Fold this protein.
Amino acid sequence: MDIVFEPTNDTIYFEEPDSGTIIYEPTMSQKLCGVTRPEHFKGVTSIVLRLFNLVQPNRAYFGEKDYQQLVIIKKMVRDLFLDIEIVPCPIEREPNGLALSSRNVYLSATEKSAAAVIYQSLQLVKTMFTEGETDSNVLIDNACSFLLNKSRIKIDYFKIVDNNNLEDVLHVHSNCRIIFAGFLGKTRLIDNAPITK
Amino acid sequence: MDIVFEPTNDTIYFEEPDSGTIIYEPTMSQKLCGVTRPEHFKGVTSIVLRLFNLVQPNRAYFGEKDYQQLVIIKKMVRDLFLDIEIVPCPIEREPNGLALSSRNVYLSATEKSAAAVIYQSLQLVKTMFTEGETDSNVLIDNACSFLLNKSRIKIDYFKIVDNNNLEDVLHVHSNCRIIFAGFLGKTRLIDNAPITK
């Protein structure tokens, strides 16, 4: 049997969310999307821990599309000794490679088509890595050039980071992630991919 | 059977405590002792939640001597839906009224004797309240004068606060606490008492 628990603010918070007990991951939360949204992940961890304590799940499923969120929650679970298995769920994509997102409704048909270059640029990095390039700067420069030549996307960040701590890597290994955020028109899009041989 | 769990830093923290997930109560933590020690209660809640999750107790006992800590932990337990009963333990005192504290070893015999005025000043407030005085300013002014006349104690704060949120009260009711912090020589002492009729 499937059960949906869809609590309102009143169930989760006893007072204004900003006045209640805050859960905060202080290092990775400030990187990547945290640079432009410094309070965002504080809200995520504060509500997810409440949800975990209310539901007491054995397993919790988080999409890899929000990769930074996934890694921060895994760290929270480890740090706080929660007996919960965090199960990552692979990114679902449109046929052209665009990662599925609730934000895609803001894209015009033309933009949706143009946005395919994001996935193509991630694939370009993977291909170059498979062919032997391990210099992070070279890989990123190629991916950014590709992206900027083929589209009007404004890049927020395009990085290769260590899977576990989201630190920038200089020499890419197979425990890394290519991770992108940028704007197409007014719509902020994020995407990422594992680097594997 | 009694069991003591006495973990080291290595058990509680996977990395430097400041890099791990932080638990933070944002309102009461900044009052009273939080004014001079703004990071203190962040450390308390961060380690106590880890302890709770490791031990998974039905009940946890906290002394009323650290009254602010007790109230903040009760709020954390409520906010995070922890199924733990927080049991307050009354303050233990020397025969002269001085609240027992690990810090009392820093007091000379003369200072220990002088420190009795702290408890006497708390009692003074209770007596005046019982006799009908409910103006917080009047009560506190009398207690501070008493304390300063009878000792060389330097007052950090001396307040009457609401039991549940540690907000200053103007008109004292019987859900309040008299709460003191100050220095005798180099030793910081804290004490408090409930206000009851």
